[in-house]
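CHAIN AND CONFORMATION:
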Amino acid sequence: MLPGDHLSAIRAFMQASRSSSFSEAAERLGLSTSTVGKSVSRLEGRLGVRLFQRSTRHLALTEEGRVFLDGCERAVAELAAAEAALASRMADPAGRLRVSLPELLGRRIAGPSLIALAADYPKLELDIAFTNRLVDLVEENIDLCVRVGELAGGGDLMVRKLGVQRLTVCGAPDYLTKHGTPSRPAELVAHHCVTQSRGPAAETWRFAESGKTKHITVRSALSIADHALMADAACRGHGLVQLPGWIVDDAIAEGRLVPVLEAFAPVPLPIYALWPHRLGTTPRVRIAVDALVDRFRDF
């Protein structure tokens, strides 16, 4: 890297070359004539050549000066091109964007919204992966992820809330006929339930009751890692299930599942977009987050 005084001297040399005068160059640069002259002299000393033929009235480039000026002008042109390329990149989202999404939510809801960006921004290279595990964005070189549920801590991440995921408790008509319909959350302990296979926390369902959050530990008849399969198991009568409304709404509309405990709303789960601080508000991240916000606004 060139020291600052060396760059200042090159700037003075280039302006003097254009002006053929130290005094005019000094006026354009807002410096004194002696400062410009000394800067050029130091540059000549550093390079070991004379860049100008000097007279009392005129400056003329030497052959070495013309060669050096050509090189400086090429360097300035390359810097201008690099700046223009960056400005274009900032205005027009481009480059690879690695995204991690929850499996079912990603495939059905978030993923299609992001894929639609590809048509609008052809320079954007989307790389979308689906997983329900908690990914480490920094360690795994992921640019953006969507997480459902309360955050344990953002760390060195930027966070934006996208919305909430409404939950519904429901069961198959045959199951409810055989085992009865619970009228209060506390009655769930007497029922078979289909839960997520994510440890003990998955067997605790939260409800809003009398202005407070009530935690109910349910009895797991089946523990499944996939939301769609959980819904299918509930439709087959294996027990009650607590799932996002968008997963079970069709089955409820078709009569294959019946909602229960509607007076006791399950506590909804927040949905967040997270990305590393190093990416800040780069265009490719910004347009992806904006697309997700639009998709989840009325979710």
Summary: Residues 113 and 291 are 6 Å apart (CA to CA).
